C-alpha cells in the first residue's frame, strides 16, 4: 500500500492529501480507491464529505462520525467552505484574471460545457501568473461545486488544464489540478488545511514566490457574491 498522506487527524474526521490518479470509490477493474485505502489503514468508518476528480490531488476530508459527515457535507453544499485550487495550463487565456460564470450542461461521453445563461451558474474566480514556456499558473476559487467545474472553466478560457485529456489539455504526466487550501469556520469543527504543491507542478514553477500564500486575503471580485446567492 502506498504511503498515507494525513494532513490532520481528529476524533471526528481525517484530512488527507489525495494523490492524483486514485478514484474516490472502487470502480470496475480497480481494486483500490481513496476511501478504501484509508478505511483499511486507519478507520473502516471513514466516509468522504465531498469529492475530487480522479486526476485531482489535494485536500480531502473524510468523516468518522455520522454527525460530522452530515454537517460537513451540508457545509460544502451551502458554500460555507472556502476552497482554493492551483492549476497549470498551456496557451494564452481569453483573460488573465476575473470571474468565469455560466450554467453547465452535459455534453457527450460524460463531459460538460459552459453556457452563457445564468439560471444556476457555476462560479469560479481566478488569478493567473506567467510561468514561461507558454504556460500559466492559475489560482482558482470555486464558489460553487459543480462536476468538472474548474476543468470546464479553464476550457472556456481556451486553455484546458495540462494533462486533461477529456477537455483537450496539453499532454502531461498527470492532471495539473491541485486542491491546495481549504478552510471551514465552524464553532465545533473549525479547520484549515493546506496540501503541499505536488512536485509535478512545482517543476514548472521557477519562482514559487509568485504563489500567494494567503489567497483569502487577495482582492477577489465582490460582484460575484450576488450571483452566488441564486
Binned strand content: 25-35%
How many helices?
5
Along the chain, the helix and strand elements come as EEHEEHEEEEEEHEEHH
Q: What integer is the average pLDDT? A: 93
CATH hierarchy, class: Alpha Beta
Radius of gyration from CA coordinates: 17 Å
Main beta sheet: 10 strands, mixed
**At the fourth CATH level, what is the homologous superfamily?**
Pseudouridine synthase
CATH topology: Pseudouridine synthase
What would you call the structural class? alpha+beta
User: Any idea how many domains?
Assistant: 1
CATH architecture: 2-Layer Sandwich
Distance linking N and C termini? 44 Å
- The number of E-state strands comes to 12
Any low-confidence stretches, pLDDT <50, length ≥5?
none
What overall geometry do the principal axes of the alpha carbons give? globular
Helix content: 10-25%
GO biological process, one term: enzyme-directed rRNA pseudouridine synthesis
Family: Belongs to the pseudouridine synthase RluA family.
InterPro entries: PsdUridine_synth_cat_dom_sf, PsdUridine_synth_RluA-like_CS, PsdUridine_synth_RsuA/RluA, RluA_PseudoU_synthase
GO molecular function, one term: catalytic activity, acting on RNA
Amino acid at each position: 500500500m502506498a504511503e498515507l498522506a494525513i494532513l490532520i487527524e481528529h476524533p471526528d474526521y481525517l484530512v488527507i492529501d489525495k494523490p492524483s490518479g486514485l478514484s474516490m470509490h472502487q470502480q470496475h477493474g480497480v481494486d483500490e480507491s481513496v476511501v478504501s485505502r484509508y478505511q483499511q489503514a486507519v478507520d473502516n468508518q471513514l466516509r468522504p464529505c465531498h469529492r475530487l476528480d480522479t486526476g485531482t490531488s489535494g485536500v480531502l476530508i473524510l468523516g468518522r462520525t455520522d454527525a460530522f459527515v452530515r454537517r460537513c457535507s451540508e457545509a460544502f453544499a451551502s458554500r460555507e467552505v472556502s476552497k482554493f485550487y492551483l492549476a497549470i495550463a498551456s496557451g494564452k487565456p481569453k483573460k488573465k484574471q476575473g470571474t468565469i460564470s455560466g450554467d453547465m450542461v452535459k455534453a457527450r461521453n460524460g463531459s460538460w460545457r459552459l453556457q452563457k445563461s445564468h439560471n444556476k451558474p457555476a462560479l469560479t474566480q481566478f488569478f493567473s501568473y506567467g510561468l514561461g514556456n507558454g504556460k500559466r499558473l492559475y489560482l482558482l476559487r470555486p464558489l460553487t461545486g459543480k462536476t468538472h467545474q474548474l476543468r470546464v472553466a479553464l476550457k472556456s478560457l481556451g486553455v484546458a488544464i495540462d494533462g486533461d485529456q477529456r477537455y483537450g489539455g496539453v499532454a502531461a504526466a498527470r492532471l495539473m489540478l491541485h486542491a491546495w487550501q481549504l478552510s471551514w469556520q465552524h464553532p465545533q469543527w473549525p479547520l484549515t488545511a493546506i496540501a503541499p504543491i505536488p512536485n509535478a507542478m512545482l517543476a514548472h514553477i521557477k519562482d514559487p514566490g509568485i504563489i500567494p500564500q494567503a489567497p483569502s486575503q487577495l482582492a477577489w471580485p465582490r460582484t460575484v457574491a450576488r450571483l452566488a446567492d441564486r
